[in-house]
Amino acid sequence: MLMDGVQIVKDLERRVAAEIFVQTGSLRIAETPERAREIVDLVEMGKSIKFDIHHISKDEVAKKLPYMKTDDLIEACYCPTDGHLQPAELVSAYIKIGRSHGVDYKSNCRVEAVLIEGGQTKGVQTAAGLLHAPVIVNAAGPWSYLVAETAEANLPTAAIGHYYLTTRPDDANPVDRLSPAVRDRHHRIYSRPESGGLIVGMYAAEAVEYDMEQLPGDFDMSAMKARFDDIHVATLIHAAQQRFEWINERTPMTVTTGIMTFTPDGQLFCGTHPDVEGLFHCSGFCGHGIVQSPTIGVIMADLILSGRTDYDIHAIEADRFFEVPGFQERAEIKAKCYQMHAGYYGSVQGKTHAKPQTREEA
Known about the structure:
about 30% helix
């Protein structure tokens, strides 16, 4: 899916004359035997599907990333075709092409309810009035479970806080814009170049939980501020320093916080709900919405227009926890999503990695 997404983005770039995908390559690194085994399994799996990924020595890592600590590494792998999507440019392209096809965007228009008659969607009630439509796509991010509830549907997602820092350009530690992205699961961090500096984010063991229904109706996520005396910010900076020793609390940087949408198994929800015809869910990206959006957009279009897609979406079907005991009440859903977030980078993946049971497995 992700490889197809790159091709979709390249077409977008051509159509809007903008750079959206930045091919930097990516590294996954390990400093413990458990994480080293994880990388061995990852490379083995990648090669089995003819993915361009291979082992790389720590000396080679040091050449690619001279600003990163590498002397403690015991294993690493490199994917040269990987990279990142520039969020602002991607969204701008979506909007531009959407408008060229007659899409009418209504910004800051809060949805209050999904209108259902006889098990069929009829539209939405918004703060600005009624909007009628036979098909509704619930892509409301951390609010998606609330939108589902207005249609008397259950969507097992939870809203969890996330933090990342962005350093300012530093002549003493120059970061090339094409430096590889890094995943260091031992320290629970990821990094990539950004505007001459470095982004470092963290999937911490402990995170802020949000009840979206308790936030004001005019809540604006982009206005959220991170305080440097916040324990989550301190934890992030400390973790970043373990791999990038020049980063500390005095390093010129900005710290950004927001709210991610997590699911009990770390996979998004994509598709219909059994009880409501015309209601489609597209939520629960666990922090990967930008990178997955190009292909997921195609999948959603397939499902809406023809009821099927050529992609294998078994693992991301929206109804996979439908009526499964333990996934119906908000308290138990939040607990499972929080546990998944805590282990997102913390748990060791690979051949022995286990996931929660779905409807068919229960």
